[in-house]
Design a protein that fits this description.
The chain has 486 residues and is of the alpha/beta class. The protein has helices spanning 20-32, 55-60, 71-76, 78-85, 87-92, 103-106, 121-124, 139-148, 180-199, 212-226, 254-264, 301-308, 338-345, 352-359, 376-386, 406-426, 438-446, 454-460, 466-485; strands at residues 12-16, 37-40, 66-69, 93-98, 129-132, 166-172, 205-209, 245-248, 273-276, 289-295, 318-324. Helix content is 40%, strand content 12%. It binds zinc ion (ZN). Residues 351-353, 374-375, 377-378 line the site of zinc ion (ZN).
Length: 486
């Protein structure tokens, strides 16, 4: 890159990027490093919209080293095309970068068609190098991207996308309950609300991906149960910056989205839980995100990997948890990649990291670096081998024949009722928060002989949180083993 002072004619790099929020974040970082950049953004909005009057002058006096723009602007806007065809631009634009190039395939034919037309830039700048960048491209995608951009003799630079510090976890929830997704989503949020109360700004920065509708549900739920405690500090004036949670989705204005992005890249960010749709995926680069939760299943492994990859960008161990039910991955869900069904159902109990990397044509690197925190299944097998816990996570040890006496049934029932009350007391006295209903307890007591493992418990009652199943299993185990040893 040529420094600002050295000459009038300077190399210019054009970067095509999908989101304004992303562009703003990158420009801020580059400006801080002393790189002069600008974004070609429309004042009018439409294809004929204009740019700020001083843009061309700044461009021709060599004030820009990097120019960020949108695919829509780069491809369709007449004034943009005029700027690109200026002698100055033709002489000085040396590289055109297409960032998040997987959008060419994923969005190109769909709701962002202009990504698919970026190949025309190779004829606008015939002597510039074209660079396509993405963190998620299978071999097939790579071929399609280079073809689409008219790249001749491309030199691929490929690295294993493995994210060794993220532990992947998948939790199945029941397919049907009364209020369906809303109830289950609120149940999931109960412990998070509790965490916000006890830890306020020290709660791990968490992104919760869901549908647009559930973003609103989650936001309203936390507002409702937290009351005054939703702000930090509690006695602060109460604009949205002081709220401990936020939403990020496409119906919001660019300004709101940019605000969230600029906050979550700072360590002191007050907004600790972000409800987000897939709009909050690509390129959001905060070292402070520690936890990503998916409620529902992204349709492509590329999206899932992008979104879960928002965690752990500082290299510390972080977690990705995906909650799904059979409806989420049903045959009628349009565009759901088979690999996502495999990732959720995992019929061969394969390491989840392995499944992800296999999709991108890679393997888990270097055996020596392997740990047991790759995924929930690896953790399980570690525990079952080395740990002596009363509740065997691999379920293999708790296989004693549960011939349960009537006394024991009553003992178990009263303990379960106690567990229900105790959990609900912890969580705002909301019955959904224990994951246990009286009907569920009755049902379980009728089928105790089958309740030998976590999986069986999760199957037989409408609870879906593993720690609840563990508590129930522990109660059953304790009551039955006590009486038989007496
Ligand atoms: Zn694993």
């Amino acid at each position: 890159m040529v420094s600002k002072e050295s000459s009038k004619d300077k190399a210019i790099v054009i970067v095509v990027s999908p989101l304004n929020a992303l562009i703003d974040d990158q420009i801020n970082k580059l400006n801080a490093l002393g790189v002069c950049c600008a974004s070609l953004r429309l004042c009018g909005g439409e294809a004929d919209g204009r740019f700020e009057g001083s843009f061309q002058e700044n461009l021709q006096t060599g004030n820009f080293q990097l120019i960020f723009t949108h695919p829509d602007v780069a491809v369709n806007n007449r004034h943009c095309r005029e700027l690109f065809l200026l002698n100055y631009s033709q002489r000085n634009v040396v590289v055109v970068v297409v960032d998040e190039a997987h959008c060419i395939i994923e969005w190109g034919h769909d709701f962002r068609p202009d990504y698919g037309k970026l190949g025309t830039l190779s004829s606008v700048f015939p002597s510039a190098k074209i660079v396509a960048m993405t963190a998620t491209a299978t071999r097939e995608y790579q071929r399609a991207i280079t073809e689409n951009l008219n790249m001749k003799n491309p030199s691929p630079v490929i690295a294993n996308p493995d994210r060794a510090n993220i532990c992947y976890e998948v939790i199945q929830r029941p397919s049907y309950v009364k209020q369906g997704n809303v109830d289950q989503f609120e149940e999931l949020l109960c412990p998070i609300a509790e965490e916000i109360i006890t830890t306020t700004v020290r709660i791990p920065l968490t992104i919760i991906y869901s549908s647009l509708e559930l973003c609103g549900v989650g936001f309203a739920f936390l507002e409702r149960v937290l009351g005054d405690k939703q702000f930090y500090p509690m006695d602060a004036p109460k604009p949205h910056q002081n709220r401990l949670f936020a939403q990020f989705h496409s119906p919001q204005t660019d300004k709101m989205k940019s605000e969230i992005i600029s906050r979550i890249v700072t360590e002191s960010c007050t907004q600790r839980v972000i409800f987000a749709t897939l709009a909050f995926g690509m390129g959001i680069d905060s070292p402070y995100v520690e936890r990503v939760i998916h409620f529902g299943v992204p349709r492509t492994m590329e999206s899932f990997f992008q979104e879960s990859g928002r965690a752990g960008r500082d290299g510390r161990p972080d977690k990705s948890t995906l909650y799904f039910n059979n409806n989420d991955i049903g045959a009628n869900v349009e565009g759901m990649q088979p690999i996502m069904r495999e990732y959720c159902k995992n019929p061969k109990s394969e390491c989840r990291r392995k499944i992800i990397l296999k999709h991108f044509g890679f393997r888990i690197p270097n055996v020596q670096e392997q740990s047991n925190s790759f995924c929930d299944l690896c953790e399980k097998s570690c525990l079952s081998e080395f740990c002596d816990d009363t509740v065997d996570p691999d379920h293999s040890k708790v296989t004693a024949n549960l011939a349960v006496s009537e006394n024991q049934v009553q003992g178990i029932k009263s303990k379960l009722i106690g567990l229900k009350a105790e959990t609900e007391a912890n969580y705002f006295h909301l019955s959904m928060c224990s994951g246990l209903t009286m009907e569920g307890i009755d049902e379980l007591c009728l089928t105790l002989s089958k309740a030998k493992t976590l999986d069986k418990i999760l199957e037989s009652v409408q609870i879906w949180r593993k720690e609840h199943a563990e508590q129930i299993l522990k109660i059953i185990h304790n009551v039955t083993s006590r009486e038989s040893s007496e």
